[in-house]
Design brief:
With 349 residues, this protein is an all-alpha fold. The chain has one domain (2-347). It is built from 14 helices and four strands. It has helices at 2-28, 48-63, 70-90, 94-110, 131-149, 155-173, 177-197, 206-224, 235-239, 241-257, 269-275, 280-303, 306-327, 336-347; strands at 31-32, 44-45, 117-118, 125-126. A two-stranded antiparallel ribbon has the order 1-2. It has a two-stranded antiparallel ribbon with strand order 3-4. A hairpin with a 6-residue loop joins strand 3 and strand 4. Helix 6 (155-173) packs parallel to helix 12. The longest helix is centred in the first third of the chain and has 27 residues, at 2-28. It is globular and about 65 Å long. It starts with a helix and ends with a helix. Its cofactor is Mg(2+). Mg(2+) binds at residues 147, 207. One of its GO terms (biological process) is cell wall organization. Its main location: membrane.
Length: 349
């Protein structure tokens, strides 16, 4: 009941704050203008991340959590939100933005929130001096995965809501009330923001919002899966399947084309789905559905036995391959799996 109250409070505060930040963004020039690689056609306020962070911080402090991990979550989120805001305003170089990400990632590391040990098949592996590097790579991957998926109205917001809900469910089974509570508070803030962000959007997350959300999800995944096993290490990756797929194949696609992996393009998953003829809203809802499949798969995989987890993993890999081939996400016209299924169905009388 207490958690539901926090959800309602964060939702209400966010719902009230967002229109205020829309006006502030327009007044002080925090507006994203259309260009050749962006979908929107009119100037759009991009202080969404700031509104979400304010709502999230107010309710988190109001909840008075006993665990001190809330401090690095809020401090690092504020740092990354500021870096994203500067990037939205002045279009920082990728390396400068990455340095800002490293500064934010340094906050949870300073507080001792790191990936230090995994236990594959009952064998404990301690990363030792490499723990910090592993944590940095993990956090940076999640931050940039969420950042890259933020290409359509409401897309990143909805995908993160689905991911947070899945993490919350798993942490309930772990009796990790703190992580569950933080997830619920942030879900409330995002639900209050989504009506203004869904197509046609009145405000964007901006890099300040997408990177900040990626940071919080990254920290929660480390705290929520502390003392993780080899298999559970992949739960956050599965839960965040859509943004990770998009990021992974964007890197492969750019490598194949011989261009910088940091170069922006219009061939992300959401772009490719739109090229298939889906409308803006249809594309977003379709990706929500794919994200939900991966999120449910992650939860079921957590509850399953090892053989069951392997079966779920194989099904998710099959789904990933079908999505990649259907959308031509990798930049290749080869579709072996789709052609295989087509031949099978063609033989059916």
């Amino acid at each position: 009941m207490h958690t539901f109250l926090l959800l309602c409070i964060s939702f209400a505060i966010s719902l009230i704050l967002v229109p205020i930040f829309i006006r502030l963004a327009k007044k002080f020039g925090f507006v994203d203008y259309p260009n050749y690689r962006k979908v929107h056609t009119v100037p759009m306020p991009y202080l969404g991340g700031v509104a979400i962070l304010v709502s999230f911080t107010i309710v988190t402090l109001f909840s008075q959590p006993a665990e001190m991990e809330y401090k690095p979550i809020i401090i690092g989120a504020a740092i990354l939100c500021f870096v994203g805001l500067v990037d939205d305003k002045y279009d920082l170089k990728p390396m400068v933005k990455f340095i800002g990400q490293l500064v934010a990632i340094g906050v949870p590391i300073y507080y001792g929130i790191i990936i230090d040990t995994i236990t594959p098949f009952g064998i404990e592996i301690n990363f030792g001096v490499l723990s910090v590097l592993v944590t940095v790579i993990w956090m940076a991957a999640i931050i940039n995965a969420i950042n890259l998926i933020d290409g359509l109205d409401g897309l990143a917001t909805g995908v993160v809501i689905i991911a947070l809900a899945s993490i919350a469910v798993i942490t309930i089974f772990q009796s990790n009330i703190f992580v569950m509570m933080i997830c619920i508070i942030l879900i409330g803030s995002l639900l209050g923001f989504l009506p203004y962000n869904f197509h046609p959007a009145k405000i964007f997350l901006g890099d300040n919002g997408s990177m900040m959300l990626g940071y919080i999800v990254g920290v929660l995944s480390i705290i929520g899966f502390k003392n993780i096993t080899f298999i559970s290490l992949f739960f956050p990756i599965i839960i965040l399947g859509v943004p990770f797929i998009d990021m992974f194949f964007a890197v492969i696609r750019r490598f194949r084309e011989g261009v910088s992996v940091m170069r922006a393009d219009k061939n992300h998953l959401h772009h490719r789905i739109r090229h298939l003829g889906f409308s803006h809203r249809e594309s977003v809802v379709l990706i929500y559905f794919i994200a939900l499949l991966f999120a449910i798969g992650g939860v079921v995989m957590y509850l399953a036995t090892v053989p069951g987890a392997i079966i779920i993993g194989a099904m998710l890999l099959l789904t990933t391959n079908l999505v990649v081939e259907a959308t031509n996400l990798i930049g290749s016209n080869k579709r072996p799996l789709l052609n295989f299924f087509k031949k099978i169905f063609d033989r059916i009388p």
